[in-house]
Every structure is written in C-alpha cells, then in structure tokens.
TrEMBL record:
Annotated InterPro entries: AB_hydrolase_fold, CocE/Ser_esterase, Galactose-bd-like_sf, Xaa-Pro-like_dom, Xaa-Pro_dipept_C
Protein name: Alpha/beta hydrolase
Domain Xaa-Pro dipeptidyl-peptidase C-terminal: 282-519
MF GO annotations: dipeptidyl-peptidase activity
Keyword annotations of the record: Hydrolase
SUPFAM superfamilies referenced in this protein's UniProt entry, alphabetically: alpha/beta-Hydrolases, Galactose-binding domain-like
Gene3D superfamilies xrefs: alpha-amino acid ester hydrolase ( Helical cap domain) (1.10.3020.10), alpha/beta hydrolase (3.40.50.1820), Galactose-binding domain-like (2.60.120.260)
Pfam family, one: PepX_C
Ranges that cross the membrane: none
C-alpha cells in the first residue's frame, strides 16, 4: 500500500455555496505540489475509469484534490453545467494554493467535462502552473454536440441520462434512478430518452443543445483565457474520441496565444486509453511542478505525437499531411450493389452516378468510430453489403501510402425530400480477409434543400493517421443514415429526428460523381 491518507474538506464560495473536495496526501512531510480535478461524477470515483487512483499520484509526491462541482456529489447549489464553472474554478484555485499542505504549485488534470473545467476561469485570475486537458473542447456545437449539424444521438442522450441519474440519487429519488438506469440497460433510451430527460431533468443542457440545433439558435460561447493556455499544457486526445477536433483546436489556440503546448493523440476512445498514458502525464507534471530550471533546460523535448492505426506505433505530430493527391469516385449506377462497380481512383476525375434509398423502417446502422455505441476500430463488412450503402474502393496499393489529416469529401447530390443526411465511413480492406476495418467516420445533416435540385456538399470526417499498407485497399462507404450515432432524419422539419417513427419519410438520394472527390486537409487549418 502507498500509505497515503485522505480527508474531505469544504470551500465556501463568495455566494455562500459550499463545495466539497476529497484530498489525498503523500505519506511523508509536505508541503507538496497539488493536482486538482473538478468533476460532477463523485469525488470518490476520481475519474478512475481513465486515470490512476489518487493514491498512486500521492505516492509520486503530489497532494491530490478531487472536487465535486456545484450541485453535484456532496457540493451545494444547482448544477447548470458549463456556464457555472468559470468563477468556481478560479476561486477553487486560490483556495488550493492557500492550503497549508500545498507548496503553491498547482497542476490540473481530468478529461471530458473535467478537461473543460481546466480551461474556464475568471479573466485576470492567476493561471495554473500547468494543465492537461484531455478528450475535451471549448466549442459546444462542434466539439460537444454535433458533427456536420447532426446531433450526437446516442452519446448526448446517454450522457444526459447519466447526469439525470446522479441528480436523482442526490435527491434520494431511487425509483427514478432505477427507471433511468433501466432505459440505458435495455436501450429504450434511444427511443424514449428525450422524453425521459424532459421528465427528470428538464433543464438539461443536452436538451438545450438539441433545441438550439433544431431551431438554428446560437450556442453559448466559451473562450479559453490566453494567459492560461500559454502555460505549460499537455493536450490528450484519442483517434476515436468525439472531442478530437476540440483537441486540435485547443492546440492551435494555445500556439496563437504564444504557448508551446504538448499534444498526444493516442490509440484511444473516450473511455479506453492506451498503455503508458499515466506515465506521460506523470512525466509532464514532474517536469513543470517539481523540477528546477536546470532540469528543464536539460530536458527541452516536448511530446508531440500521434498513433499510426495500421502500423501500431507512435509518429511525430506535425502539420504535414498525406497524401497530396485526391481521390475521384466512379460508378455506373450500382456502387451500392456490386463492390466492383464503385471505384476510388487516385488523381483521377470522378464519373457516373448511383442512387440509394433510406428506408426509416430499417435505417443503415452504425457502430465503432467516434460516435458509435462501441467506439473504436470496427469491422463493417456486414453493413457494407446492404443496398442502402454505396461502396467505393481503390485497387490494391502497390506500395505503402499514408492518410494523415482530416479526410474531406465534396459530393454532388439531389434528394426527393428537403432534409436528409449523408454519412461516411473510411475503411482499410486487408488482403486475403473479409475484414473491412473502419477507421474514420463523418456526417452531414442537410436542411431545407430544394427538392430534386443538385447541390455540392462538403463533409469532413474524423481526423486520422493511418498507413494504407501495400496490397490493402481503401474503401469509402456512403449512406443516408448512421443509427444510433445520429438520429434518423425524418426528411422534413426537425421534431421527429431520432428513433424511426411512422412519420418518417422514405428518402431517395441520387449522387452525381463527375464533380465528386475526396482529399486530405491538414490537422491544423490556418
């Protein structure tokens, strides 16, 4: 055993609200540098689904503070989500530094919501000594809520219900907690989750996001404080994390503010990280919270790396992207029927056409990727055999090729309904196997289009880094649904987006490929 010890301590904020923290201390004489996490899920858990327990950090010479944010856990007040955190964060920082056990050095850690709380504070407040936001972003619409205007159906509802269940437990409403838990276990949340949220947590920010998207209303804006993001910062992202674009955006903003951020994009989903992630964090904290200037000058190297999906190794992360060529799409009309018909050709113009029908009774399913119920790499061979999926594939590569950056598709399409979705998946097809290894997905929701009028649309996919190994093939799959990653489009208005209903219309999409192409864009768009 580490021999660390812990106790609970409260902070009374300026408005009289009391926040409760659990503090772990090393089993030796202090004071020590502090690691702080502010979170809504219970200080006892301490995000141990992704991080080592606070006892481990204490054994490395840190005092660790896990705080229940306002209105969650044992802390007083009402939980209103993101907008409440700026002043609470700054007051907490001042309080931590004042504790007799703290030597004045403060580092921040945490992922997702706990990553966001590291980035928001009061203007002109003293910045932390270092921070390590993981799997997070600052733009609510683009980094938390939607892809291409398509609401994260499975992710958002499941998360909103988790928060609602925590509130029910806090209020000792155990029957309501059971009903929410059952909805998640039997998957009825996919159909009834919005109504369940309206019943048990009507002010949920998840509901507000859906309303804003449906009605084209503005989202609340959050901007990181420049003096904070200039501080030493280790940004952690995952290739299959829904907030990955937020990680790249944060890196860019830190550089623009004059910072020198470190960044690691790993072989990770939101909840499942790679072996060695804790050691990278420890090295970062030791460097900036413990080491003297001489040590730092002797160790100038910073972490900037990204995992290569197919080669299973780390590579340097820079703004070079591969390939510089583009892919044309070709079909004689049966790309959704015959694999041999749809072709993806390098540095060649597209030609032909194909048509798919979205039947809401049996919408094209989704899995894996950054939004599917089981995120990560996924064999989509069965999905690609459906006739509501257009499949475009290269010939076998004669030598290794690299895809590095953000895959982007421009495609010309017309629809027989004013609203529709375009859903994309990129996969690596291995030689001599039936595996279709999906590694990147992308989505676009189109609203109020002119019926049967061709328009060109652009869809961006999840950033990626992969080697297309010799003798393998690259495949692009196109569908009009990806359920339950995003809700099924009813074809008109907005009220019925979600689970299929009797009011959903059949949607026919006709694609013209002459002006259609796919290219790679850099991770950090200037």
């Amino acid at each position: 055993m580490s021999g660390s010890r812990w106790f609970d301590k409260s902070l009374v904020l300026r408005d009289g609200v009391r926040l409760i923290s659990r503090i772990w201390l090393p089993n030796n004489n202090g004071p020590w540098p502090a690691l702080l996490m502010r979170q809504p899920y219970g200080r006892e858990i301490a995000s141990t689904i992704t991080y080592s327990h606070p006892e481990w950090w204490a054994s490395k010479g840190y005092m660790v503070i896990i705080q229940d944010v306002r209105g969650m856990g044992s802390s007083e007040g009402i939980f209103n989500g993101f907008s409440q955190e700026a002043s609470d964060t700054s007051e907490t920082h001042e309080w931590v530094r004042s504790l007799k056990e703290c030597n004045g050095k403060l580092g921040l850690y945490g992922f997702s919501y706990q990553g966001f709380t590291q980035l928001t504070g009061e203007l002109n407040s003293k910045p932390p000594d270092c921070l390590s936001p993981a799997m997070t972003g600052m733009n609510i619409k683009d980094h938390w809520c939607s892809d291409g205007g398509a609401y994260w159906w499975h992710n958002n509802i499941a998360w909103g219900l988790q928060i609602a269940a925590l509130k029910m437990k806090r209020e000792n409403k155990l029957l309501e907690w059971e009903k929410i838990r059952l909805a998640l276990e039997n998957k009825s949340y996919l159909r009834e989750g919005i109504d369940t949220l309206k019943k048990y947590d009507p002010n949920s920010f998840v509901l507000e996001w859906l309303k804003n998207l449906n009605n084209a209303l503005p989202f609340e804006e959050f901007k990181p404080i420049s003096t904070w993001i200039k501080q030493p910062m280790l940004i952690i992202g995952g290739l299959w994390d829904p907030h990955l674009k937020g990680a790249f955006d944060l890196y860019k903003k830190s550089k623009e503010a004059g910072g020198s951020p470190e960044i690691i994009i790993g072989n990770a989903t939101h909840l499942n990280w790679w072996e060695g992630s804790q050691e990278s964090l420890l090295k970062f904290f030791d460097k900036h919270l413990k080491s003297d200037e001489k040590f730092n000058s002797e160790n100038p190297k910073s972490e900037k790396k990204i995992w290569n999906i197919s080669l299973n190794k780390w590579e340097e992360l820079n703004n070079k992207f591969h390939p510089e060529f583009i892919f044309g799409l070709k079909s004689d009309g049966t790309a959704n029927i015959e694999v041999e018909d749809g072709s993806l050709t390098i540095n060649s113009k597209g030609s032909g056409w194909f048509t798919i029908v979205n039947d809401p009774w049996r919408p094209t399913p989704s899995d894996g990727g950054h939004l599917g119920p089981n995120p990560g790499k996924f064999n989509r061979s069965i999905i690609d055999k459906r006739l509501d999926v257009g499949v475009f594939q290269t010939n076998s590569f004669e030598e290794d090729q690299y895809l590095r950056g953000i895959p982007t598709l421009e495609i010309q399409v017309k629809s027989d309904q004013p609203n529709f979705d375009i859903c994309l998946a990129l996969s690596l097809v291995e030689q001599g196997t039936d595996k279709v290894n999906q590694f990147s997905t992308g989505f676009l929701r189109v609203k109020n289009s002119k019926i049967s009028e061709e328009c060109i649309y652009q869809i961006t996919m999840q950033p990626t880094n992969i080697c297309l190994i010799k003798d393998s093939k690259l495949r692009l799959s196109i569908s009009a649904a990806a359920y339950p990653a995003i809700g099924v489009n009813p074809g008109f208005e907005e009220g019925n987006i979600g689970a299929p209903s009797a009011n959903h219309r059949v949607i026919t999409l006709s694609f013209s490929l002459k002006r259609t192409f796919m290219k790679m864009t850099p991770f950090f768009i200037k």
